[in-house]
Amino acid sequence: MSRVWIFDLDDTLHNASAHIFPVMNRAMTQYIMEHLELEEHAAHQLRQHYWHVYGATLKGLTRHHGVDPYHFLHETHKLIKLPEMVLQTKRLRHMLQSLHGRKAVFTNAPRNYALQVLDLLGIADCFELVFSVESAKFHAKPSVRGFQLLLKSMQAKANDCVMLEDNLSALMTAKRLGMQTIWITKKLQKPNFVDYRLSNVLALTHIKL
Question: Where are the alpha helices (DSSP H) in the chain?
Answer without folding.
Answer: 20-36, 40-54, 57-65, 69-76, 82-85, 92-98, 111-121, 144-154, 168-177
